[in-house]
Amino acid sequence: MDYLVQFQINIFSIIILIVLFAMIRIRSKIGSFGKKILILAIYLTIAAAVVDPLAWVFDGSLFFGARFLEYSTNFVLVLLSPAIGAVMLSYVDNTIYRDLSRLKKRLFYSHFTILTLVILLVNIFVPLYFSVDFASN
Question: Which pTM was predicted?
Fold first, then answer.
């Protein structure tokens, strides 16, 4: 119950995103690339809203695999932030210009996501973004 109170804003945001997803699916009969981008943004945001509490739940836990779970949830959470931004920028670009080749040429604005991924891979060996203590997790 304590986790429910602590992460109620995440639960509320997931419910709102699910309602938004349902409204897009019910009301929009015509498929478009912009709709696909928006749905991808919803998926990524739901994933971030789920991973965020998990990062806190595994914080300080001491069981077999807890360090891996803590590190993985932090890794994914840090990576999702620029990915959501890139998808939203792609949606805005697509809404304004309606040109898929323009988005492909700009790599769907994923430059910061790729940079973050590279830094996170380096972070495994040299802590740059975050570190997880071996003793206390």
Answer: 0.91
Number of structural domains the chain divides into: 1
Residue 42 and residue 50: Cα distance in Å, rounded?
Answer: 12
Residue-range definition of the domain harbouring residue 34: 2-123
**CA trace torsion 32, 38, 43, 49 (10° rounding):** -170
Q: Which of 25, 57, 66, 26 is nearest to 42 (CA)?
A: 25
- Tokens 């740059």 sit on residue: 128
Is 1 strand, coil or helix? Answer: coil
Contacts of 55 (CB under 8 A, 6+ apart): 70, 73, 74, 77
**Is residue 14 domain-resident?**
yes
Question: Between these two residues, 55 and 16, which has the higher pLDDT value?
Answer: 16
Question: Could you tell me the CA-to-CA distances from 31 to 102, 105, 136 in Å, in that order?
Answer: 20, 23, 49
